[in-house]
Amino acid sequence: MKSLSIKDIAVKANVSITTVSFIINGKAKEKSISEAVIEKVKKIIEESGYKPNQIARSLRTGNSNIIGLIIEDISNSFFSRIARLIEDKAYKKGYKIIYSSTENSVEKAKELINMFKSRKVDAYIISPIKGIEEDIKMLIDDGNPVILFDRNLPDVNTSYVGADHFNASHQSIQSFIDQGKKNIALVTTDINVEQIVERYEGYKKALEDNGIKYDESLVLKIHFNQEESETIEQIKVLLENKKVDAVLFATNYLAISGLKVLKKINKKIGDDFAVIAYDDHEAFELHTPGISTVQQPLEEIAENVIKLILKQLSSKTKIENQQVIIPARLIIRD
Amino acid sequence: MKSLSIKDIAVKANVSITTVSFIINGKAKEKSISEAVIEKVKKIIEESGYKPNQIARSLRTGNSNIIGLIIEDISNSFFSRIARLIEDKAYKKGYKIIYSSTENSVEKAKELINMFKSRKVDAYIISPIKGIEEDIKMLIDDGNPVILFDRNLPDVNTSYVGADHFNASHQSIQSFIDQGKKNIALVTTDINVEQIVERYEGYKKALEDNGIKYDESLVLKIHFNQEESETIEQIKVLLENKKVDAVLFATNYLAISGLKVLKKINKKIGDDFAVIAYDDHEAFELHTPGISTVQQPLEEIAENVIKLILKQLSSKTKIENQQVIIPARLIIRD
DNA sequence: ACATTAAAGTAAAACGTTTTACTAATTCAA
DNA sequence: TTGAATTAGTAAAACGTTTTACTTTAATGT
Fold first, then answer.
1. pLDDT over 70 at B147, yes or no
2. CA of B324 to C1' of D8 (A)
3. Which one of B59, B80, B283 has the shortest CB-CB distance to A59?
4. Tens digit of pLDDT for each residue in A163-220?
5. Of A196, A253, A206, A204, the residue nearest A228 (C-alpha)
6. Does residue B22 reach within 7 angstroms of strand D, measured from its CB?
7. Do A118 and B54 touch (CB under 8 A)?
8. Which of B101, B78, B240, B244 lies closest to B163, judged by CA?
9. Which domains are assigned to chain B?
């Protein structure tokens, strides 16, 4: 069954297409369409269940009311929660979200940007990876609203919203040291993104500030795309062979792998062994004992992202870039 | 900066728009365009970075290469994992996904369907709720490929993919009984969807099969949209006031709330108190002791969904409906 | 009574593609 | 050598909107 077009409505109402269009878009008054005609047309639209074809509308107006969201992986709870919040807030303003996961592949990220571009999304929200700076710059140069979150790209000149990773990490390590820990390990990933680097820098700086020598063998950089079993093996080696009394995991999925190792080798968290995970996860609260975590302020991040995007969308001129850095909270459990 | 159109390419190459279009769509040979022209045009396209405007393309061809995915909540790990798998597989076939969460609101679900309709998505993948049967039927009548998953709507006549909730639930209760449990509680939700009802039926049937009397006061139906704190309170009341020696939680988030209660009232899982959660979650594996769960075969569900959708998309005629029921696995931990 | 202005509405172009039906030039068969 | 078939390509319509510039009629001011 072919769906109705504005023409069908016009014919039924015995008015022109233009008139119907004006009514649909609330310009009837301003374009001096009589109350009687407005009523008649509205009634017909109502009864027939006509919905304007957004594709045609987009083609004509040049905007799609769609915001593209590019993230690393929607199945990661950090991103799925952010996505949900962003979707929610965008929805209320009449925008839809198309999301896609890059899986940390530069290739896929570029493809996604192209895809969004050819779909004429109105704005881009991107948790970027190194290697797509040029593509993002092109978007910006073409006048598209672009906002980065979670990870920044220092040489891309646009707004950014994210947590204060350096301080969160520094604080975490400081709390270990305050507990008297000396051999503090860091389990992180090898992807070269700012937020991960900052966590690493925070770790180093905190050691330095406390006069503890940095020991490279206590830093484990896990390859991003590898199987979890391999990750578990590597963490196991670290914990068994080094005398480590505290570990900071730089992402929640690494912490989960780490906890699996602890369970396996039956190493208990307690007075002589402490753990902090970056990014909260339900598993951490339930764990016995509770796992301390660095909580990113999801709600605030989402809010700022959407606020900035909407602001840019409703402004004719390019608004000034903003860097919103939100403190993360260290939650000490048990 | 205006983006390039096919016309710009045509002008640059000094050929007609038609020719460029044929080349872009791989119909050059068939339409007898010379090798030389093909090369020239391809080169120009390459150099200029031209990408066809998908909106215009969609308007003309009537399809968008977008599949709409309607789920309950993207931040629930069951859905976010399924979404990721579906996205992945769809992407490989050149389809994009637009998802949106209904939050179990009939209103929002209807709105989403309308939105997708006006966006002319090529197909619908829906984890439905009661109350939108008519809307879905209309989609089907209009010739749209529609596939339901996770939850079925008995009186909607279309394909469905989901786990065998009745048997999974039955099996779980049977395993409690085999362990000698007598006072088995069920914590479930009050949303009236088939998959939840089936879990309830499986519970009842298993009790009956074993000659255990059904006790309504052991079934706790949690209101869907309430605050977690209230849920926790209700579960707490159940566990403290009834002598219960086993609990089946009908969803993973209920189980998580339940575990929080256990931690709070310091009730241990062990020989005299057992728990099974429906839908796995990382927290369950890590929990001490491990929480037994009913694992839904995510990969298989996603695979079947996408297979059916693609089959329907590539077929001119309506293919026969299929009901794919996949067994769930009961994972006994510790 | 006449020119202006306002009211009520419409025709047609434009957005960027795809596709159908066509043309012109060349090759081929008999 | 002529008509048919092939090769190489193009003009223009169509998809369903929005929007600009226009027309026609009625009301108003002087």
1. yes
2. 51
3. B59
4. 999 999 999 999 999 999 999 999 999 987 888 999 999 999 999 999 999 999 999 9
5. A253
6. yes
7. yes
8. B78
9. 6-52 (1.10.260.40), 64-163+299-326 (3.40.50.2300), 165-295 (3.40.50.2300)
